[in-house]
Amino acid sequence: MNRRKFLGQALSLAGAGAMGLPSAGWATSTASPGGRVLVIVFMRGGWDGLNVVVPHGDDTYYSLRPTLAIRPPSDGSATSALDLDGFFGFHPSMSALRDMYQSGQVAVMPAVQYADASTSHFTGQDIIETAVTTAGSTGWLARHLMQLSGDVTSKALSLSDQVPLSLAGLPRPVSAFPDLGSLYLASSQSDRTMLANVINQSYGATPPAGHPYAAALNGIGTSLLGELTSLQAVGQMTPENGAAYPNTNFGRQMRQAAALVKGKTELQLITLNLGGWDTHSGQGGGQADGRMSQLLAGFSNSVNAFFTDLGGDASRVTLLAMSEFGRTAAENGSGGTDHGNASTWMAIGPTVNGGIHLGNGWPGLQPSQLRDGRALAHTIDFRAIYANVLTRCLGATNLSAVLPGYGGGMVDVVV
To answer: Where are the domains of the chain?
Structure first.
């Protein structure tokens, strides 16, 4: 192993420790029944909610999208929407999720956003992840963890390149790993043994007195190898119950998320990202080879496999899919859609209140009904969803501390 590679890998693991590599509980927990778990999937880029959950009962939808509109279920073709309630339907690539909807395991919210919403990806994502409409530096999930006692960093993990803003602001940040199966300091056993000896020698001595970070760094160093071994084992767990994940990065991460739920019972929160939704051009309609069709098929099939894999553990898990904004009601001249306003969110799992949740009703697609004449208006404030999952999934009792400035109640999507 060359010196550059060694330094890069060692520094990346040191960074993982600095980012809050969970302590002893990670290495010692067993697969005994745990508590409720909230899994967040952020659709980064602003997914087109109108083609995720198709309002086929609104004729205006078809006049606004002459080439991108998903045909109504009555067409009976492979590119037709999968009917949900006679008015809405899933995109045709989402048959696996439609099966879950029909069994009452999907709560669909077709018009979620907040007042005077930003159309900037960066500002919009910041607002959704901090849950304050002026944005901030502390995430809503981090504020929830701050209300708990003990080592809260072992209660959350992000399957991503870095800790998301939703989990930022803790005194000791939680861990972020894009792939639990690649947490090796070296490729060969001899190199791993050599590095283990180096780490054990480096952290075996008593930390110097008076140094503000010495004890914490020593604790991270001495537990590093055991924790890595524990996470590697979780990442390599075999799917159960015949679950078949797509051979994609997101499919792998959802498989590892299921393993974390089953193997790390102290976890309350897992976050993931699924990007590629900024479809200004070449979005595609209902055709299977379209850009959005392929993204939605991967999402739908991965989520279905995730809950299949969980088996009996599925009853304590809720998955929340969200995005920073939707797309324009009308298609553009490049075969795509531009930054819009309200979008579709979903809560998925055996304990959701399945069906369509519209808040104050369907906002409509007529020019006078659209925000600024171009994008879907919202009927559910996203914080009403947060209030619900915080209370029902995570047992939060001090919502004002987690959602400062919000007092608009909640939408009952999780029971």
So the answer is: 3-402
